[in-house]
Specification:
86% helix
């Protein structure tokens, strides 16, 4: 039963992290950028809340993934170590790159807004690509590779 709960938490956290990242990069960020000065307050509120959200989703993903790997004896797989390093790097990237660019978008004036939106989309796209790689590797580990 503990294993089922760990898988449930892990999958839900991955969905939250990946889905939230996609939504922010391709929907929310561009929409707030297009809103100009009218969207500045909303951008600030979303940027502030998203740091906490992604911290929780990323932390739960990594913690539950480590517990799953331990419970299932998967630390012998070389792929699991790649996934672990990639997940930790993604947490760092989200906090230090994507998150900082979202904060910059919140502070950007009208003249800098479109450039700030492009930077958020670029950082988010890199994050999503790496998340997709990590997701693929997790599936491979799950099936014994």
């Amino acid at each position: 039963m503990l294993l089922v709960a760990l898988v449930w938490v892990h999958v839900l956290a991955v969905i939250a992290w990946f889905g939230g990242s996609a939504l922010m990069a391709f929907v929310v960020g561009p929409a707030l950028g297009a809103a100009g000065g009218e969207g500045r307050r909303a951008t600030e509120m979303i940027a502030t809340r998203s740091h906490r959200y992604y911290g929780i989703a990323g932390g739960l993903t990594i913690l539950s993934g480590l517990l799953l790997a331990w419970a299932e004896g998967r630390f012998t797989s070389p792929l699991i170590w790649i996934v672990i390093v990639l997940a930790v790097f993604l947490a760092y990237w989200g906090a230090r790159v994507t998150g900082k660019r979202a904060d910059a978008l919140a502070r950007a004036g009208d003249a800098q807004r479109s450039a700030a939106v492009r930077q958020v989309i670029a950082a988010g796209t890199v994050e999503l690509g790496l998340l997709a790689i990590a997701f693929t590797l997790m599936i491979l580990v799950r099936f014994g590779y």
